[in-house]
Design a protein that fits this description.
By secondary structure, the chain is an all-alpha fold. The chain has a single domain (27-305), classed as Orthogonal Bundle (Farnesyl Diphosphate Synthase), CATH 1.10.600. The chain has 13 helices and no strands. The chain has helices at 2-39, 42-60, 68-91, 93-99, 112-133, 135-153, 161-180, 186-209, 211-216, 222-226, 228-254, 258-278, 282-302. The protein is globular, with a radius of gyration of 23 Å. The termini are far apart.
Length: 306
């Protein structure tokens, strides 16, 4: 009787344990994919896709809703970008535990092994999908994936060059639409310059926000080398040069009316500079980073008014 009771209790325990495990599986899958979406900055990827569709529809004039090539282009670009976010977080786990511990995913919700697996699969898939369109787009995707890896592994710890690399990649995400829909379109060039400049400014501001963790691990970003005051001066110079360059390109190639730039360039950048002058805390720089992203989104929306 004693042995049979033990068997019954053990069987009951095993059955209850299996039921509990089966019930928790959907929750575990949900938490895993939630962490994966967070790791790949899902909403940033959506913005990249929208930017490419807006570029093709409003600047080039193609019927993008029925063009499967643009869908493949956007998917491949988002794959490369997602892989870049993953590898960046992979190399920055220790720094992020100081700067943004609540946002760390790798090592908590997703193991480092899975992170490398997803990065590799997304990078190779992005290049392969690009190859279905043209070898030029595949080459851009390959170079972008390589530059994102190099940035995460080394460049982001160097002054300016890492910031410029990310700005250049953001510009490529707009310019690559012109590889699909030729010939050369000067409007796309203006928006690519806008994306490059705003991303460059945002990346430098993010370095100002993250200087504590970066300094702890020996990074040589501009705020660490120059200090916050000189870094602000650099940002003012970059914004002035960028504005002058956009106006020059518009005057030579496009000819958009000046009120367009007042509404979508001068006023937003003026507000950004006003906030930057007063910024001196990590929270201030975090808000400025979000403001830069908002200005980028405003630039995408302005395509519909060109």
């Amino acid at each position: 009787m004693y042995g049979r009771g033990m068997i019954q209790r053990r069987s009951s325990f095993s059955f209850s344990y299996l039921c509990a495990m089966a019930g928790s599986l959907p929750v575990q899958f949900f938490l895993f994919f939630k962490a994966l979406f967070r790791l790949t900055r899902f909403w940033n990827l959506i913005i990249i896709g929208i930017a490419q569709y807006f570029t093709a529809y409003f600047l080039v004039g193609y019927d993008t809703l029925t063009d499967w090539r643009l869908l493949l282009l956007s998917v491949s670009t988002m794959m490369i970008a997602a892989a870049g976010y993953i590898i960046n977080d992979y190399y920055d786990v220790k720094i992020d535990l100081i700067n943004k511990p609540e946002r760390v995913v790798i090592g908590k919700s997703i193991t480092r092994r899975y992170a490398i697996f997803f990065h590799t699969v997304l990078s190779l898939s992005g290049v392969a999908v690009g190859l279905l369109l043209s070898w030029q787009i595949a080459l851009v995707n390959f170079m972008s994936a390589f530059l994102l890896w190099l940035y995460s592994n080394n460049l982001k710890r160097q002054p300016f060059i890492g910031n410029f690399a990310i700005g250049l990649l953001t510009a490529f995400s707009v310019l690559v639409v012109n590889l699909l829909y030729q010939p050369f379109n000067s409007l796309i060039l203006i928006y690519a310059l806008f994306a490059l400049a705003m991303t460059l400014v945002r990346e430098i501001i993010k370095d100002m926000e993250d200087w504590k963790g970066d300094n702890t691990f020996g990074c040589k970003t501009i705020p660490i080398i120059w200090g916050l005051r000189k870094t602000k001066l650099l940002l003012y110079v970059l914004l002035i040069l960028f504005t002058a360059l956009v106006i020059m390109v518009n005057t030579i190639y496009v000819g958009l009316p000046i009120y367009y730039f007042i509404a979508f360039l001068f006023l937003p950048l003026g507000y950004l500079v006003a906030r930057l002058i007063r910024a001196d805390t990590i929270r201030d720089f975090a808000r400025l980073s979000s403001l830069c992203k908002l200005i980028l989104l405003l630039g995408i929306i302005s395509m519909s008014l060109v």
